[in-house]
Amino acid sequence: MKATTRLRQRLAAGDILVCPGVYDGISARLVQNAGFEALYASGGAIARSTGIPDLGLLPVDSIVGRLEQIVDAAPDIPVIADADTGYGNALNAQAAARAFERAGVAALHLEDQVFPKRCGHYEDKSLVPSREFSQKLRAVRDALHDDDFVIIARTDAIAVEGFDAAIDRARAYAEAGADVIFVEAPRTEAEIEEVAKRLPHPLLINMFHGGKTPLVPLQKLKELGYRIVIIPSDLQRAALGAMQRCLEAIKRDGNSASVEADMVSFKNREEIIGTASFLERDRRYGA
């Protein structure tokens, strides 16, 4: 079954999908191996993995190349991808959507910020007009070949125009053909509940420790009508912390023995990567 179809069926079943954010092949492999049923290719985490902030600075082909690696490393679960603003106007968004589709992702989300965008939890964001973004959503749907491909519409309007405006925009985006609605950065549990009350559509919520949105139990989110929870940056933040501790140990001691608990073993690393299967294939096809 196609990844797009699997994702649509899961959304239709009324379950809630928890999607950790990944940024490269090995983080994607870890999510798949941990038993998650979908993952989120975070644009912010991908950007930061190259040493730059989440400000829409990466060229599209760099992002698509990373998505190909992620899909290849986690072939058993659907990938939900961050397409930022579509990287320009409606025609740019169409080209990006086709590239994402060719890369093998099952869904993408577009946001209504002005290009280049800012992280959803940064300040000083700007939005395009609601009608312009609605047309961009229609353009993306027209560009895709797979009818099961899931389009997610994100609005950042809470921080710019207020809560009611965010709801109005979300309704317009659903009418424009979005399959899932993503109201970014609700600030209270009451706002999370009000989004669900006023938008009778499949909903996505961005929830991570330390963000503007409070952490809410999964069961409550499911009951409210949320179908996807993305946790974009926690894996990367955990990895950064572990690397900093390892570097401190190496600088102090000349080796990493004191932080052994932070590291997987040599053997475990090779198991995660699947080295044995590569070597077996090499033997099979060897002369």
Protein model, in words:
Helix content is 49%, strand content 13%. With 287 residues, the protein is α/β, with parallel strands linked by helices. The chain has two domains: 3-233, Alpha-Beta Barrel (TIM Barrel), CATH 3.20.20.60; 240-284, no CATH class. An eight-stranded parallel β-barrel has the order 1-2-3-4-5-6-7-8, surrounded by nine helices. Helix 2 (25-33) packs parallel to helix 4 (60-73) and helix 6 packs parallel to helix 8. The longest helix has 20 residues, at 234-253. The chain is globular, with a radius of gyration of 20 Å. It starts with a helix and ends with a helix.
SSE arrangement:
Blueprint lengths: L2 H10 L4 E6 L2 H9 L5 E3 L1 H7 L10 H14 L5 E4 L7 H14 L3 E5 L18 H14 L6 E6 L1 H4 L2 H13 L4 E4 L5 H10 L4 E4 L11 H7 L1 E6 L2 H20 L12 H8 L1 H10 L3
Parallel strand pairs: 1-2, 1-8, 2-3, 3-4, 4-5, 5-6, 6-7, 7-8
Give the count of helical stretches. Answer: 13
Low-confidence stretches: none
Strand fraction band? 5-15%
What oligomeric state do the depicted chains represent?
Answer: single chain
Going by CATH, the homologous superfamily of the largest domain would be Phosphoenolpyruvate-binding domains
CATH hierarchy, class of the largest domain: Alpha Beta
Describe the largest sheet: 8 strands, parallel, barrel
Overall 3D form: globular
Instruction: Please indicate the count of domains.
Output: 2
Q: Per CATH, which architecture of the largest domain?
A: Alpha-Beta Barrel
